[in-house]
Amino acid sequence: MGYIGNYILNLASLTLGGFASSGFPSARQPTRPLLFSYYVTHRCNLNCTYCCDGDGKRFKEDPIPELTTGDAVKLISILSRSADTLDVTGGEPMLRADLEEILSHAQHVGMRTVLNTKAIGLKERPDLLRFSDVLVISIDSLDEARLGELLGAQLLGPDGNPRPPEVARAVLDALDFAIQRRGATRTKVVVSAVATPTNLGDVAGVLDFAVTHGLGFHVSPEIVGTRANPALRNNLEYQELIGKVLAAKARGKAVLGIPEYLQGIRDFRPFRCYPMLMPVIRPDGLLYYPCLESKNAEISVLEAGGYRKALRLARARRGEIPACRDCCHIFCHMGLSLLQRHPCSALKEARYWGSC
After folding, report:
1. How many separate domains does the chain show?
2. Does residue 19 belong to any structural domain of this protein?
3. Which helix (H) or strand (E) holds 115?
4. 297, 271 Cβ separation under 8 angstroms
């Protein structure tokens, strides 16, 4: 089932009470995935200041065994029967030597691929562009010194010491390479920034760069645990930044996220979360239920043989999805939940995918 079909069935779920689309009675929780997020690894060679797994740790501090290449492609074949878009993330997914094979298989089985990465070394692995329909590069500042600080850069120089500026330059060089090659590979390039209390001016510069170069742009507030950094609440500079992002979107620039999402992260409005719009799969193939932040991952999608069966097993074990409201103001939760709630805005949003 593709994005449009699942979106319509989810609307029926919200309107009719859940039975029509989910197979579960009276849930009013849409459970048809708009896309899957597959954490291919928790490994990372950086130490970003804002990295958080929802439990106060960086992903790399929670090592999880990874599926073999063979099992990873089997998993993707199973997922392709339930949604047509695969978000590949980590950790740093480029630490997997088989990433090209994983992405190319996803395309082979008809999935649109989205790769989230810092992209260090992309020039040496150009096929990653060819196998990524959308390349999302995390850029939180265009200034090498500032970016190096935010990366907590720990790639080491010849003397064994960290080289933050060199690491930052490697990220920015990868972005330049992607911009130069995107036409040949027809890859849409998106720069994604995390807004923290210390880099708000930097994020504004990243937005300007994206607009100037015809890139997609995405912003999320820094999350501490499962909630937005409290220093961003009632922060006038932060509100001005999101206002600038909203203005760019109103001018038709390729800013990802419907206006309701951008307004929501500006004012930190409560929202009803629908976590199963983007089910998250761990590196070992286990399904998080109902979300990564819950840390409940007990059902293997591979062993279940299908996503719907895995979901039923997880739900039988853990019960109904709780009604979360004032937390997780990030795109994968808030952005998609509001997208599902606002079909008119969702229709308009489709054009941004074609403009970056």
Report:
1. 1
2. no
3. strand 112-117
4. no
**Residue-wise pLDDT tens digits, 257-294:** 999 999 999 999 999 999 999 999 999 999 999 999 88
CA 18 to the chain's CA centroid: 26
177-214 burial: b if 16+ Cβ within 10 Å, else e: bbbebbeebebbbbbbbbbbebbbebbbbbbebbeeee
Taking each helix axis from N to C end, the angle separating 200-212 and 236-250, rounded to the nearest 10 degrees, works out to 10
Residues spanned by the domain of 172: 32-268+326-336
Q: How many residues does the chain have?
A: 356
Half-sphere CA count of 59, side-chain side, radius 13 A: 21
Q: Is the pLDDT of residue 245 over 80?
A: yes
% of the chain at pLDDT higher than 70? 91
Give the CATH number for residue 71.
3.20.20.70
Nearest to 296 by CA among 320, 271, 326: 320
